[in-house]
Amino acid sequence: MSPERHRIALFGSGRIGQVHARNIAAHPGLELAVIADPFLEGASKLAAETETVAVGSPEEAFDMEGLDGVVIGSPTNTHVQLIEASIERGLAVLCEKPIDLDLATVRECRDRISGASVPIMLGFNRRFDPGFASVRQRVEAGDIGALEQLTIVSRDPEPAPRGYLSASGGIFRDMTIHDLDMARFFVPDIVEVTAHGSNQFSEDIRELGDYDTAVVTLRGSRGELITITNSRHCVFGYDQRLEAFGSGGMLSVGNVTADSVRAYGASGTEQASLYQHFFLERYNAAYRAELDAFATSIRTGAAPSPGFQDGMAALVLADAATESAASGKSVDVQGAW
Amino acid sequence: MSPERHRIALFGSGRIGQVHARNIAAHPGLELAVIADPFLEGASKLAAETETVAVGSPEEAFDMEGLDGVVIGSPTNTHVQLIEASIERGLAVLCEKPIDLDLATVRECRDRISGASVPIMLGFNRRFDPGFASVRQRVEAGDIGALEQLTIVSRDPEPAPRGYLSASGGIFRDMTIHDLDMARFFVPDIVEVTAHGSNQFSEDIRELGDYDTAVVTLRGSRGELITITNSRHCVFGYDQRLEAFGSGGMLSVGNVTADSVRAYGASGTEQASLYQHFFLERYNAAYRAELDAFATSIRTGAAPSPGFQDGMAALVLADAATESAASGKSVDVQGAW
Amino acid sequence: MSPERHRIALFGSGRIGQVHARNIAAHPGLELAVIADPFLEGASKLAAETETVAVGSPEEAFDMEGLDGVVIGSPTNTHVQLIEASIERGLAVLCEKPIDLDLATVRECRDRISGASVPIMLGFNRRFDPGFASVRQRVEAGDIGALEQLTIVSRDPEPAPRGYLSASGGIFRDMTIHDLDMARFFVPDIVEVTAHGSNQFSEDIRELGDYDTAVVTLRGSRGELITITNSRHCVFGYDQRLEAFGSGGMLSVGNVTADSVRAYGASGTEQASLYQHFFLERYNAAYRAELDAFATSIRTGAAPSPGFQDGMAALVLADAATESAASGKSVDVQGAW
Amino acid sequence: MSPERHRIALFGSGRIGQVHARNIAAHPGLELAVIADPFLEGASKLAAETETVAVGSPEEAFDMEGLDGVVIGSPTNTHVQLIEASIERGLAVLCEKPIDLDLATVRECRDRISGASVPIMLGFNRRFDPGFASVRQRVEAGDIGALEQLTIVSRDPEPAPRGYLSASGGIFRDMTIHDLDMARFFVPDIVEVTAHGSNQFSEDIRELGDYDTAVVTLRGSRGELITITNSRHCVFGYDQRLEAFGSGGMLSVGNVTADSVRAYGASGTEQASLYQHFFLERYNAAYRAELDAFATSIRTGAAPSPGFQDGMAALVLADAATESAASGKSVDVQGAW
């Protein structure tokens, strides 16, 4: 290992922790110093694969020598505490979304860390997807003139297990939040939120008082209209699309298949393969690019994007969507963050 | 001419009147008996082309011998009167949308014609587009399981002239009304309407107190969520798309180009031609199929679809959208028709 | 009928005759004066539909008053005689391909009609397809720089009946001839022909000593390389594609579906409908445009394109392909016409 | 490093050597023991990056302890010697194509190594591309019925430098050879080769007596017809496509873009990004899968595919194509290997 590699502690060895562990291990500028998870068995297995050590508590992880940053992929209710503990120790932070399910808690956290000088980055991975990133850049460059409408379709292949869903904070805070951040990636200044939820297929989700299907309409400060269409299931794969429509044209991001094969037969033509199944496949490159941006922030000290404020803003929108879906009224979010 | 052709009087020789005139003239089961328009010059020119006669008043048209039906393509404010006059004379009616801009007027008309036995058909031409019709049929056949979400994108290439717009009743009654009917084509029983309007590019439209950009969310009685995205301009052509998403899959209708050419060069690949410019091109086949359905109704006496009730329902939804966009609240439309 | 319509006699009331009859009847500048076919029953039925008269012999047709031109859609072995008889009478000619299956006969015909001043047009309808015509025009305009390669794929949905095939002159003269003309549409000066035939699926065709599958490679005088891929069957519809590749890019013509529907399900995504089944659907617009070009030639007296010489050239190439497929050697066709 | 990793010596640190070095270093079952290249500076730089050692001669590489296999990415004229030296030492071999430019040399090599029991694999990477591999598998599974035609288009983005080209053996042995192997991947038993070359744009290539543009037609033993279309340049990226056409349908492999973005504007719609520029990007996954197949062969001792015989067969076809392009005659290659 070359000495200039930044040493990273990883919290969490679950599905997303595994993604980060492998990416950190493979990154030329980073070194995976330790993986912490109270479920030590999982942490140890992942540590063996990525040639590092596993510990059972955050304290043991923070005790590791020469740490430069942390990646937080542990359960949501540990995020605030780990963010604050990391910042206290002067460690750069990459934290999975959401910061917390409770906006008041997030605001208190913000106040406590307000003077921090280390980079704090939020894990809105989709901003780093080659497609979304390219369209954002081209929109900024004026390729479609003034941005007038944004259409986001986002469907998971199937619902998460009931146990996960019951602690998720509801579809808007758990799933839509990614799309709300994507909306803010293009239109940072959202002034109004209107949301609709529906129960179309899952008895489990209905019993939890949550929705399996949702539509959100956002208005930007220049009158831009944004729609988000969500479903918790989709038989043809992970449906992740966006259209940015403007005065001079449109740019779209389509779904991704594992190969470029098309089939032609007696029942139809040009049939493509199924879309990549879920976020691990679809956003594989995005997670690597996200980590690379984090490494750059550590190295340069520059403020990362998306940052803590973006995480809070997305939560404000998710809360407003939850309220709007219940009340049937649009929610004004001007100055709400 | 064979004697069994049904004789049709056409009201209106404008853009849409011309479409109908040519289609009636070319239809093997119909005969264009007369074209009526106070702007007699236009009517005469069209009559010469379609080998029929032109008159300047409805009365003269109704005086023609052996009429079987009428096609009403005159200005909106003449529709109710012409519908009633035609029905009085026992003539089948194909009337362009909307029936009227005022819902109360439409309801009074409905009451007056309630006992009529002749076919009354509304000109929601898109229901007859090969793409939309095929998807509707496949959804009905269960190809995508239960229909859960419907996503409609509908953009005009450019705004109509200010004179037209000022009498149009606003974007929801003039433009969105087609999409509202398309929503009802798939989900007849709509229970809630939420709408947002915005002024993104047209100073003319802003001055008229109208929107150039809109988004509408509808909820069906089974919880189906429907979004409609509208714009009064679109540089790449007439943008007319639909996605029907269900528990077992999705069916989409895409835009149509005039040819199947793709271009590949140093700045990009697979570039298709512009989409067909506007409704005359895009719905050419739909207008012919619509007329054919009307001819069938005349011949068989069967109730046409879409009928008067569909025209009224679309107006109810357009009114609700107008109200919702102004109030910021969802409008309950259960039992509103 | 307006007096300035050019009066056309149609020979043949079979599949292609029906296409022409309907198009002539619907053309504003043409009048279908008579349909001639020894199979008088078919001719009469078609005449009733298109509101003209039927006769059983060419002589009776030529006797019609005020003829301006003829459309020849009768069997191949009648073409030369009808061309010559029409020219003698000063009538413009639109003749279906091929002029004749025997090149010597074609050359004699050419010599006999060499002084004729009336327009003689060959029915290579594909040149008038919106896609092929557009690509040709863009290639001429320099959109892809110098044209270097042309890739033509052309597959029929299923073989013609054995009776038709046995008199067809073989796949190169009957089917490939359209693609050979398409090649000449882009690269008029072909210098070398290499062909391969194969029997892949049809016992009937094998017994006739013909091929059901073929590949032809042509070389243009500037070294352009052209490939034609043919099959007499194709389960997914009429496969009609072209790619023009040049120093600065590529233009392609794709297949055409009846609608713009795509299906997404558990076994695949983006499945389009079957391609339009055969030439009557696929080249519907092309036949109308072809007829329109013929009408223009009659009106202006300008030489039509494609002309007699193009019909002869395509036959020269088809003969060379037949020879090459048998000999395994490339055939030099420089100066062969 | 875990002890069960197979130790690999890599010959060559050029463009392809770098691909293999990184893939070997990242492979969980392989260990990059040494990189050998007389150009020691390049080897050292690559060795530093991949955390191994560099040597200047094959002998030093073979002296490394505990080698299990070699990957040969050095210049073509060293292949035979390195293959034989490796086999003598009982090392498994993965050798880049071609084995040699001279078929007699290849045959002598074959005779000398005929008793070898170690795996010998040829680097026809495209067989491992997800798209080509999937189509091959589906064709084998009968998805398109009997395979009748294969259409391969293969264009490089730009010509290699003159120095490279002058030693390349000509377009058929250097470039087409990959397509010839792809043809054999689907139709192993080729009986006839016909080829055409042309000089369309490169004065350099013309001066070298080589072609910049080529078309090859192959015939399989069951009459399958295969066409290969090649160009040494292509402004829109690396053009790598295949269509497998059969009695029951068709499967195609299309080009690959770096993202799924489409652009719509006033000059066209649905424009995709440029295709991935060249083989390093396009076949990135294929090189990794190829290496994985090699690792499996080492572990299991199973004969790898493609093997030495496949490398020889492709060269036989390339030689035949070279001969056919010169003579204008088809070349019979039955029993030629």
Q: What does the model show?
A:
- Four copies of one chain form a homotetramer.
- Chain A is α/β, with parallel strands linked by helices and 337 residues long.
- The first copy, chain A, has two domains: 6-118, NAD(P)-binding Rossmann-like Domain (Rossmann fold, 3-Layer(aba) Sandwich), CATH 3.40.50.720; 127-283 and 314-332, Dihydrodipicolinate Reductase, domain 2 (2-Layer Sandwich).
- Chain A has helices spanning 15-26, 40-49, 58-62, 79-88, 103-112, 130-140, 162-166, 171-186, 203-207, 279-282, 284-300, 308-327; strands at 6-11, 30-36, 53-55, 69-72, 92-95, 120-122, 147-155, 190-198, 213-220, 225-231, 239-246, 249-253, 261-265, 268-272, 331-332.
- In chain A, β2 (30-36), α2 (40-49) and β3 (53-55) form a beta-alpha-beta unit.
- The model of chain A has no long low-confidence stretch (mean pLDDT 96).
- The interface between B and D is medium-sized, with 18 and 18 residues.
- β12 (249-253) of chain A pairs antiparallel with β13 (261-265) of chain D, so a sheet runs across the interface.
Features:
Rossmann fold; 2 domains; 15 strands; 337 residues; six-stranded parallel β-sheet; 12 helices; globular; Dihydrodipicolinate Reductase, domain 2
